[in-house]
From TrEMBL:
Record field: transmembrane: 25-51, 63-89
Domain (Cytochrome oxidase subunit II copper A binding) ranges: 97-209
Domain named Cytochrome c: residues: 220-311
Function per UniProt: Subunits I and II form the functional core of the enzyme complex. Electrons originating in cytochrome c are transferred via heme a and Cu(A) to the binuclear center formed by heme a3 and Cu(B).
Membrane topology: Multi-pass membrane protein
Record's keyword terms, sorted: Copper, Electron transport, Heme, Iron, Membrane, Metal-binding, Respiratory chain, Transmembrane, Transmembrane helix, Transport
Main location (coarse class): membrane
Family matches, as PROSITE patterns: COX2, COX2_CUA, CYTC
UniProt name for this protein: Cytochrome aa3 subunit 2
Taxonomic superkingdom: Bacteria
Length: 311
């Protein structure tokens, strides 16, 4: 089954072995807890009735307390504990070795995504081959963030100065929304991303595109935009591989035009939003780390033309 739609953001529609297990475990624990709750309420009601009739005597009461207060809770807790142990083992390692490694670095308030084997760098959009285990190495450039793709895998923190090694497998092709799940400052809510699971061949061609240097500008407007970008402030914060722009503060923009959304899924990647973002991103995502860029209308139009050519 193939599911396309970034709104797929639910732990109740698992699409990988990790979320499959955690969702099943959740249902089991829910059923057990609900059952215990009903039994306890029934016993409490029973106790009131029995007390009125005064039919339970010392020895009988002791038996009831031992059975329902000690033996049954011990069995229930032992069973759920066993489930957790099985779960930890299941979620710890994929069933076969990971085929690729992806480094994810959390930033206030966006996600840096690197494919170390090919040199590809992108932001907020993690492409993976469908049905294949992928190794994830999570860390942070500033504060603690948390990587969460509800349909694919449970949460794991990104911690500054430390790398958390984990993995994911997506069984159905599609786009799955992820979200930072650890409050990390004013724009925490606008720190989303997507996991795009593609057939192997599509993934390979995507990766090849992302690892190549930026296209050279062709039209006059693109050339002008290139000059504004590389000689102005943009280049101090952004990298466009294959040009002198090698800033490390913001997302790599080498293939910006291939991304569906901008600013960690805050706005769509189209001409109007792109222009609005560059002119004054503070109006769109207040407090984010990109200051307003006071460009002349001509320069702004040129920069947009250049960025839109970066496929
Ligand atoms: C002081 C550093 C800084 C400067 C200067 C700067 N940016 Fe940014 N830019 C950022 C940061 C940080 C982000 C990520 C913001 C977020 O999503 O929270 C960003 C995001 C962007 C994005 C969205 C990228 C994506 O994939 O979501 C675009 C496009 C962009 N900047 C273009 C520009 C252009 C064009 C200029 C120059 C006119 C510029 N930036 C100048 C820091 C900067
Ligand atoms: Cu956060």
């Amino acid at each position: 089954m193939s599911r396309i739609g970034a709104e797929d953001h639910s732990t109740f529609s698992p699409v990988g072995p990790k979320s499959d297990f955690t969702t099943t475990a959740w249902w089991i624990l829910f059923a057990v807890a609900a059952f215990v709750c009903v039994v306890v309420i029934a016993l409490a009601v029973g106790a009131v009735v029995a007390r009125r009739r005064a039919t339970v005597h010392g020895g009988e009461a002791k038996g009831i307390v031992l059975t329902f207060g000690v033996v049954i809770p011990a069995l229930v807790l032992a069973a759920t504990f066993a489930l957790s142990i099985v779960g930890i083992a299941k979620v710890a390692k994929p069933s076969r070795p990971a085929a690729i490694t992806i480094d994810v670095v959390g930033h206030q308030w966006w996600w840096e995504v690197r494919y170390p084997d090919s040199g590809a760098v992108t932001a907020n959009e993690i492409h993976v081959p469908v049905g294949t285990p992928v190794e994830l190495r999570l860390t942070s450039a500033d504060v603690i963030h948390s990587f969460w793709v509800p349909a694919v895998m449970p949460k794991l923190d990104l911690i500054p100065g430390h790398t958390n090694d984990t993995w994911l497998t997506v069984d159905d092709a599609g786009t799955y929304r992820g979200q930072c799940a650890e409050y990390c400052g004013v724009q925490h809510a606008h720190m989303a991303f997507s996991v795009v699971a593609q057939p192997e061949a599509d993934f390979r061609s995507w990766l090849q595109g992302q690892s190549s240097p930026a296209r050279t500008p062709t039209t006059a407007a693109q050339k002008k935009g290139y000059d504004v970008f590389t000689s102005g402030s943009c280049a101090t914060c952004h990298t466009v591989r294959g040009t002198p722009a090698d800033g490390q503060v913001g997302p790599d923009l080498t293939h910006l035009a291939t991304r569906a959304k901008l600013a960690a899924e805050t706005i769509p990647n189209d001409r109007g939003h792109l222009g609005g973002w560059i002119a004054n991103s503070q109006q769109i995502k207040p407090g984010n780390k990109m200051p307003p860029q006071p460009l002349s209308p001509r320069d702004l139009t040129a920069v947009i033309a250049y960025l839109e050519s970066l496929e």
